[in-house]
Amino acid sequence: MPRANDDAAALLQEYADLLAITGGDAFKARAYEKAARAVGGYHADIATLDAKGLREIPNVGKSIADKVEEYLTTGRVALIDEARAAIPPGVRELTAIPNLGPRKAMLLYDELGIASVDDLAAAIRAERLRGLKGFGPKTEQNILHSIDVLKRSSGRRLINKAMDVAEQIVADLSAIDGCERCTYAGSLRRMRETIGDVDILVAAESSAPFMATLVDLPHTAEVIGHGDKKTSIRTDQGLQVDLRVLPPESWGAGLQYFTGSKAHNIRTRELAVRAKLKLSEYGLFEAESGKTLASRTEEDVYARLGLPWIPPPLREDRGEIEAAQRGELPDLVTEADIRGDLHTHTNLTDGLSSLEDMLAAAHARGYAYYAVTDHAPDLVMQRMTTEKMLAQRERIAELQGQYGKMRILHGTELNIAPDGGLDWPDDILAGFDICVASIHSHFNQNRADITKRLIRACENPHVAIIGHPTTRRIGKRPGIDADWDAVFDACARTGTALEINSHPERLDLRDEDILRAKRHGVKFAVDSDSHSTTHLPYIRYGVGSAQRGWLEKDDVINTWPLTKLRRFVRKGGS
Ligand code: DGT
Ligand code: CA
Ligand code: CA
Ligand code: ZN
Question: How many Å lie between the centroid of ligand 2 and the Cα of residue 325?
């Protein structure tokens, strides 16, 4: 289940948003925002901390620590409840729209009585915003686009939130007597970037104890349906979980069916029909006699359809059936193939953990190499300087000895300026082991300018990786508009890798873009972009996207041995 840290962080962030909406103290709002991030990324579970322990969290002073303590003991914070009650829920909904922000949301409510996202869309279409300060046709178009992104993602959860819930439930059900198999299926097993609901499967002779346990779990808030074959609940975070208990002999067929996707299942069922067979969640049968041909394992089911087993992330009807028939399924990259992380931060810029803590956590993951890539001076709020950067490099040289075979790379995450320029001149860039370059602002430039901007960054001989290439934030920010085929070509031509940023809110590039970029001959770096030791494991979600993009080990530069990686980073230079 999610850590208390996540819930407390969400509350503190909510309070920061509420303060911003009411035009309250901006300094205070920022303090709560910082505290929210610090609590969310803190290595220890806050539920285990006392008042003193809470105050040791960076950016958490006495007053905020008291609120967290209040939350931990009572499950609520009175001050935040009050602030919440003072603002119509529809107005808070508006603040979730990028390009709008709290101040403008409040203005819309005060001036025009707009109190919901639908109100706002209607008002824009009726041109009721014209004449209002701070709104013009371009802003209106951006807002409409953002509303569209929000609507399409509504109700779906980020993969890590669903994964935390699923893994806990699988552990709880696996411990029950009579449990022969238990796993999660559906979109989660396929590693989709967002999850509609969690599908859990159990193989057992008797279903009742599993259904009863699910209904009684501490985080179960509502029982949607309670039956013999299927039980559905909603967690206190509003996530639906479907549990199906299958007879052990039809485990494989059930797992295949409930893993989906629907589009993939339609194709496998067609294959069955053409062979005069019938495929269901209970098995693969002869159509006429009803005789069972396969059902116990997925491998059996696929084999009787004339196919090798197909890895779940490929099951989207994007050509995997044909590739399987030709014996040309990709040999997908796995998390175990990842030898190191090439994009991570420390508290020298906006990370929460110290260099030492990040290195220790990376070392514990068994990495062969690890790049520290704090922000560079152009992101002014990060207060990076050349002096600080050089001091960090010295410190890394001192620490290298403690980490045995894990090679520490001194890198940076550069900021790609609107014209494609970078933070430091070439002679300084040449001093880094590796440079990631990313866009952090001016997202609304036109397509031609953004394309030029990215291509210019690729052409810099020191840039090895373009970080979070589209800059999207799932459900929050749509991402920049570029001529991606031109960018992919430039990456392939210049030997610049595209990042698959593994942060669950980013997953950038996304699966479909990865597939497309690979066709252009692009290489990829699957990075965590960690801002805390707790983020390092996010790499599994980036690997999931890479698998959905059909990538093999050799497509991903951070599966390579260090010497080969270094050659790539030099981009043909010496
Ligand atoms: P989600 O929950 O929206 O993230 O996506 P899924 O893929 O987990 O979808 P879900 O939970 O509705 O159903 C789980 C799987 O069960 C789905 O991937 C395929 C299978 N399934 C469900 N309904 C149907 C159906 O009507 N036809 C077929 N062929 N398969 C279905
Ligand atoms: Ca599902
Ligand atoms: Ca479902
Ligand atoms: Zn970045």
Answer: 27
Enclosing H/E stretch for 51: helix 51-55
The Cβ of residue 502 has, within 10 Å, a number of other Cβ atoms equal to 29
Peptide bond just before 261 cis, omega within 30 deg: yes
pTM, to two decimals = 0.85
CA dist 542 and 409 (Å) reads 21
CB-count exposure of residue 561 (10 Å: 0-12, 13-18, 19+): exposed
Element (H, E) at 234: strand 230-235
Ligand closest to 345 (CA) is 4
Phi and psi dihedrals of 55, rounded to 5?
A: -70, -15
What's the CA gap between 468 and 500, in Å, rounded?
A: 7
Torsion sign, CA atoms 216, 217, 221, 226: negative
Q: Beta strands 277-280 and 283-286: pairing type?
A: antiparallel
Q: What is the pLDDT of residue 97?
A: 79
Q: Residues for the chain: how many in total?
A: 574
265 ligand 1 Cβ < 6 A: yes
290-341 per-position pLDDT tens digit: 999 999 999 999 999 999 999 999 999 999 999 999 999 999 999 999 999 9
Ligand number nearest to the C-alpha of 373: 4
Query: Would you give the DSSP letter of residue 412?
Result: E
Q: For the chain, list the domains and their CATH numbers.
A: 4-153 (1.10.150.110), 157-246 (3.30.460.10), 251-326 (3.30.210.10), 335-569 (3.20.20.140)
Cβ(95)–Cβ(103) below 8 Å:
no
For residue 262, list its beta bridge partners.
none
Each residue of 122-150: pLDDT tens digit?
A: 898 888 888 888 888 888 888 888 887 77
Q: Which three-class secondary structure state does DSSP give residue 194?
A: strand
Query: What local confidence, expressed as pLDDT, does residue 1 receive?
Result: 54
HSE at residue 496, side-chain half, CA atoms within 13 A, is: 26
Cβ of 196 below 6 Å from ligand 1: yes
Residue tagged 């208990």 (tokens): 245
Of 202, 239, 201, nearest in space to 219 by CA: 239
CB of 199 closer than 6 A to ligand 1? Answer: yes
Q: Count CA atoms closer than 13 A to 122's CA, side-chain side.
A: 8
**CA neighbor of 240 nearest in space, from 229, 260, 224, 255:** 224
CA distance 388 to 394: 10
How far is it, in rounded angstroms, from Cα 196 to Cα 154?
A: 9
